[in-house]
Structures are given as C-alpha cells and as structure tokens.
Amino acid sequence: MKNRILLFVVFSIFLFGQDLSAQDIIRQQPCSSASIKQQADSIKQLLAKSGFMVVKEASMQMESEFEMPVIVPLTQGSWYQFVFIGDMSSKLYEVRMYDWNEKQVVYQKKMWGDVDGNVISYSYIPQFSEYHMMKPVQVNKKKKNLCGYVMLLKKVK
Q1: CB within 8 Å of 11: residues ≥ 6 apart
Q2: CATH of the domain at 68
Q3: Residues 6 or more apart from 53 whose CB is under 8 A from it?
Q4: Is residue 68 part of a domain?
Q5: Is the pLDDT of residue 112 over 90?
Q6: pTM for the structure as a whole
Q7: Sheet holding 92-98, edge to edge
Q8: Structurally, how many domains does the chain consist of?
Q9: What number of helices (H) and strands (E) belong to the chain?
Q10: What is the C-alpha to C-alpha distance for residues 104 and 36, in angstroms, rounded to an integer?
Q11: pLDDT in tens, 131-141
Q12: How far apart (Å, rounded) are the C-alpha atoms in residues 40 and 57?
C-alpha cells in the first residue's frame, strides 16, 4: 500500500504539477456534537485517572457506511488507548486498525443498543515504531452525514 501511495503521489505531481492542489481532496472536516463532546470529556477524565494523556484528538464529519482513515505515528513498546465515538443514532460502529505492512492488528464492532454502543475503545502496544491506520466507520439509515470523534491517548504514569 505504501508503495502504491508513493507511486500515485509522484505520478500525480509529474502529470498534474501545480494543478494537483486545485483538485478536490478528501480531508477530515471537523463537526460539532454536544453529546459526543460530553462523552469525549468524560472518557478523557476517566483515562487520565489511569495515567493516560491525550496525544491527538479530533472531531470529524463522516458519511454513513464509509470508513474515515486516521493515520497516527506510534512508538514501539508504548501503551496507547484509542477511542472512537460515533453518532448515538447509528446502528453499527466498527474500527479496524492496520500496521504499516497493512496487517490488521485490531478489529472491534459495536451495535446500537450495546451498553456503550457508540463508543469503541481499545488498548494497543505496538511491536514497532511506525505509522498505523485506524479506520472507523458507522452505519446510520436515517442520516447520511454524521459526526465522529477519535482520540489517541498514551500511558504516561
């Protein structure tokens, strides 16, 4: 995958030159949801008591049934906690995480109606210092555009 991405970028720059920046590029756009923000704040406080510090966090607009890739650099041997919070009205939530070699290292699925249905949280200790890709997705039959929230926390105590 990394070779394909690099080849695509190099080819695009060669072929399109400066016009590449004028193209529509998919970027994470922030969104606002009071209920998701409240859940995120509660989770951050709870994890802080366990010695975790927020490294990165972001709200993001999502489209129902489409993954939103989030790429994060991780350090070998460090203990991380990942959190994804989806729209409360969605019926399905999934997160897959891949290492740099495109090997799936985490998969979690929640359904609406589960006790903590719209929150997926998991710990991970990488074997290598490298980039990982987290791909959250949520399915909502009534809304196309949804709000999601991702957090990466690191154990410091």
Answers
A1: none
A2: 2.60.120.380
A3: 153, 154, 156
A4: yes
A5: no
A6: 0.80
A7: 70-74, 130-139, 92-98, 104-111
A8: 1
A9: 2, 8
A10: 27
A11: 999 999 999 99
A12: 9
